Amino acid sequence: MFYKDERLALFIDGSNLYAAAKALGFDIDYKLLRAEFMRRGKLLRAFYYTAMLENDEYSPIRPLVDWLNYNGFSMVTKPAKEYTDSQGRRKVKGNMDIELTVDAMELAPRIDHIVLFSGDGDFRPLVESLQRQGVRVSVVSTIRSQPPMIADDLRRQADNFIELEDLKDVIGRPPRESTNSREDVFEQED
């Protein structure tokens, strides 16, 4: 469902994509991901959204953010919020939905097709609004994990649903062995 002459933009919800790929047993090779969508159309922008722990000496996601920043991705970050839940566990919260939505709405008049890498149902109204503006929207996530990582209403609203597992051979690499890598530290919000 891609046309070679259409102007594309990628909007990657970092923690959501990371969780979906992890549930399917692979890591994303972002260089291959960018190359794949450059092949599918005229890629104008590739945005990556993530919250970061500012007060830690070392953030496990910092190397990825730096690499993406130097390799053609537009990074959108903000400080994550730390809190203690009712059971006394340390939690980290970093929701980037508003930032992603604002950027997509601003870019909509200049693009033909948005590829949203997220299964978060909160993005359904965004997809609907983009479609009213004449922008086609593809959503990349998975229904093959247990439970599925994509909200059913988001999947139904999209012009095109791309199963992440079907991209595994094109954009995937085996997962690295690590205890607390990249986006693991952020709580998923639905």
TrEMBL record:
- Per its UniProt record, what PANTHER family does this chain match? SLR0755 PROTEIN
Give the source's domain of life in one word: Bacteria
Name of the molecule in the record: NYN domain protein
GO function term, MF aspect, one: RNA nuclease activity
Q: Where is the NYN domain?
A: 7-165
